[in-house]
Write a structure and sequence with these properties.
Elements: H1 3-14, E1 16-21, H2 26-31, E2 34-36, H3 38-47, E3 52-56, H4 59-68, E4 73-75, H5 84-87, H6 91-100, E5 105-109, H7 114-117, E6 122-124, H8 129-135, E7 140-144, H9 147-156, E8 161-164, H10 170-173, H11 177-186, E9 191-194, H12 200-203, E10 208-209, H13 212-221, E11 226-230, H14 235-242, E12 247-250, H15 264-273, H16 282-300
Parallel strand pairs: 1-2, 1-3, 3-4, 5-6, 5-7, 7-8, 9-10, 9-11, 11-12
Helix pairs in contact: 1-15, 3-4, 4-16, 13-14
Length: about 300
């Protein structure tokens, strides 16, 4: 029996839903029930009737699904699929930093471990970071872990003093001005969309800066027919499906190796064995849920 057919069969037997992040390979995206960004997928995880959630992504995403649906079994098919940027901010380091800045609010990007979220006042995504920081009553903000996203948010909030954690995403940080100019040279008519995890000088070149879901909205609404996609290369696959007839060009170096660890074979194995399971201590789940829920409340407001 072929892998895709067996995966479909097992999904039914295990009462499982398969979620895949926008940066997963096209083969994995095609096997998923839902494809999206980390927060959108965690929200689907919280609403689903499925008993098992198989999260094709990286560690912090599966943890967020577990925090929002603690009664469900959450499986991360590749236990080594870990986000290096999330690992750049540990709970111990953050606790020490907080002690030195008791007046500051901690805003944790969702790309953090559950233990770090548990220490935060609020979480944010790349889609709502500007709004979330603006809603915090404190003038001083500790923004973890992505210095590029934090610096981007600072552009919109000159009234805030944002302390930037020295973390970065190696995939987005690696997108250079030279490489973008080279792709632009080949596609002079294309609009340049970039993710706010990119370097400030790359952001300065863009026609549009947004999260991955924001890129889909922009590409659909735009009159342009061609786009350069300044984020992980496989985002172009999702964009091509969502906006057929338009053309999407990747920045070739922007590959996240951790996102590519999950394969159809590892998804199959995960469904067969229901491992590796994501587990978190109940007190961490409880403490990490509060900043995630506050973020979602802010997101629902104007
Ligand atoms: S693309 Fe960057 S932020 Fe996303 S999982 Fe990979 S390293 Fe982490």
């Amino acid at each position: 029996m072929n892998v895709a057919k067996r995966i479909q069969e097992l999904k039914g037997q295990r009462k499982a839903v398969v979620l895949a992040h926008n940066y997963q390979s096209p083969e994995v995206q095609d096997l998923a029930d839902h494809v999206g960004d980390s927060l959108g997928l965690a929200q689907i995880a919280a609403r689903t009737d499925a008993e098992v959630i198989v999260f094709c992504g990286v560690d912090f995403m599966a943890e967020s699904a577990k925090i929002l649906s603690p009664e469900k079994k959450v499986i991360l098919p590749e236990s080594e699929a870990m986000c290096p940027m999330s690992a750049m901010c540990t709970a111990m380091e953050l606790a020490l930093f907080k002690e030195r800045h008791p007046q500051a609010a901690v805003v944790a990007y969702v790309n953090t471990s559950a233990a770090v979220k548990a220490l935060a006042d609020v979480c944010c995504t790349s889609a709502n970071a500007v709004k979330v920081v603006g809603r915090m009553p404190q003038k001083h903000i500790i923004f973890v872990p992505d210095r590029n996203l934090g610096a981007y948010v600072q552009r919109f909030h000159p009234e805030k003093e944002i302390m930037l954690w020295p973390g970065f995403c190696q995939t987005h940080q690696g997108i250079s001005v030279e490489e973008v100019q080279e792709v632009r040279g080949r596609h002079p008519e294309a609009k340049l969309m970039v993710h706010p995890e990119c370097l400030p000088e790359v952001i300065d070149l863009a026609d549009h800066v947004s999260s991955t879901e924001g890129m889909i909205k922009y590409a659909k609404a735009s009159e342009a027919r061609e786009f350069i996609v300044g984020t992980e290369v496989d985002m172009t696959y999702r964009l091509g499906k969502e906006a057929p007839g338009k053309r999407f060009y990747p920045v070739p170096s922007a590959v996240c190796p951790n996102m590519k660890r999950t394969t159809p074979a590892s998804l199959l194995r995960a469904l067969e064995t229901l491992t590796p399971e994501v587990t978190l201590p109940p007190d961490v789940i409880k403490a990490a849920r509060r900043p995630l829920e506050l973020m979602m409340e802010i997101g629902r407001g104007n």
